[in-house]
TrEMBL record:
Homodimer. Catalyzes the oxidation of 5,10-methylenetetrahydrofolate to 5,10-methenyltetrahydrofolate and then the hydrolysis of 5,10-methenyltetrahydrofolate to 10-formyltetrahydrofolate. This is Bifunctional protein FolD. The gene is folD. It comes from Flaviflagellibacter deserti. It catalyses: (6R)-5,10-methylene-5,6,7,8-tetrahydrofolate + NADP(+) = (6R)-5,10-methenyltetrahydrofolate + NADPH; (6R)-5,10-methenyltetrahydrofolate + H2O = (6R)-10-formyltetrahydrofolate + H(+).
Amino acid sequence: MSAKVIDGKAIAETLRARIAIEAAKLIKDHGVTPGLTVVIVGDDPASQVYVRSKVKQTAEAGLNSTEHKLPADTSEADLLALIAKLNADPSVHGILVQLPLPKQIDAERVIQAIDPAKDVDGFHPINVGRLNAGLDSLVPCTPQGCVLLAKTIHPDLTGMNAVVLGRSNIVGKPVAALLIQESATVTIAHSKTRDLKQVCRAADLLVVAVGRPEMVKGDWIKPGATVIDVGINRVPGAEGKTRLVGDVDYAEAAEVAGAITPVPGGVGPMTIACLLANTLKAAALAAG
Ligand code: GUN
C-alpha cells in the first residue's frame, strides 16, 4: 500500500489566500492593516531562513511586516525594552521573537513580557492556560497546522485514537490540547514511555515531534493510520550535501500509513500560514 501524501504546501497556499482576502476586508472596513513584527537576535542560519520566509509571506498576504535584527550580544534588558515598545505600538498586532535566543537571554522572561493579545506564537502562559481551559486564545502555529492537516483526512476527529510523540511546550503539549478539544482520545508518548513502538502502533492518528531524524519506522505505524511528521532534521546526503528528513522514516512509513505528511512540504508551510492567521485574528480583535 502507498499512503496518500498530505500536501501541506498546497493546503497552506489555500489558507494564505483566504487570509489575504480577510485581511483586505479588515483594511477596507476598519482601516486597519494587520501588522506582524518579527524579532531575531543573533545570526543562527536556520532562524534567518525561517524569519525571511515569515516576513516574505506576511507581505505577500497583504499584511504589514517589520523585522528587528539584533546583534548576538544583545542584553536581555535591551530586548525587553524593545518588546515594551512593540506592546505599546498600536500598528503592531503580532509580535514574534524567534527562538532559540542567545544564552544570556532568558527566553521564558521574554515570552512573558509579550502582551498576550499580541502573542502570535501562543507561547505566553496566559494563552497556554486559555488553550488548556478550552477558551478562545492565540494558538501555537505548528500545532494548529498539524490539526488542520489531520482534518483534511479526518474532518471529524471525535473518538479517534491519537498518539502525540513528543511532549515539548512548543509542539507536543499544545497538539495534545487541540486534539482533546477535537474530542480525540489522546495519549502523549515520549522518550521515557514504555513499549513506545507498541503505543505508536495503536494510533489511528500519529503526530511525531521529537527532533530525531527518521526515528519512527514503518513497523511503529498501524496500517492505514494518518501520520503527521513535525520533524525537520538536516542529515548528510549525497555528494557532501545535506538533506532534510522528518522524525519519521518516510519511505518505510509511506508503505504502511493511510496518509502521511512529507518533509519538506508538510507541516512546515502550515506553521507560517497559521502565524498569518493569528496576526489577522489579533488585528481583528484590536479593531473591535
Ligand atoms: N523557532 C522554531 N520554531 C519557532 C516558532 O514556532 N516560534 C518561534 N518564535 N521561534 C521558533
